[in-house]
Amino acid sequence: MGNQQKIIRIIPQYQEVIEDVGGEVARRFDLGEEIEVSITFVDDRLIQALNKTYRGIDQATDVLSFAFDEEVAGAGVVPVPINGPEIHLLGEIVLSLERVKRQAEEYEHSFVRELAFLTVHGLLHLLGYDHQEEKDTQEMRKMEEDILCRKYKFFS
Length: 156
What we know:
By secondary structure, the chain is an alpha/beta fold. The chain has a single domain (about 1-150), classed as Metalloproteases ("zincins"), catalytic domain (Collagenase (Catalytic Domain), 3-Layer(aba) Sandwich), CATH 3.40.390.30. The chain contains five helices and five strands. Strands 1, 2, 3, 4 and 5 form a five-stranded mixed beta sheet that branches. Strand 1, helix 1 (about 10-30) and strand 2 form a beta-alpha-beta unit.
């Protein structure tokens, strides 16, 4: 986990939440322990620059996901040996902690709840889910809720 912002102080609970929801997603999709995801915390300025560069949208967003293996779709992942144990780099998730804070306040829930939601959202993107069409949005939202409700009481 990387931190490229200085606005929000990182506390151990944030890593715990990310590991918890990541573990739940891994169990749900039977991903195994050899799967690895890079997560980086940034500010709005950096995520806006990334959004402009990679999506052509010149505005800040809450989360960006960069899949390293577009073929994954949650099954049949083949690990690749990298200096020792087999590991499969699924992708990278970039989270704007400024957005996490702002959206938590806007939706009147905790920072941790919003961080958990956006982490699952980003992970589902890495597994091939999207929300371009309404039916896809509904499927993705249901999956997010199912995963988070199993892990946290504040999602039920």
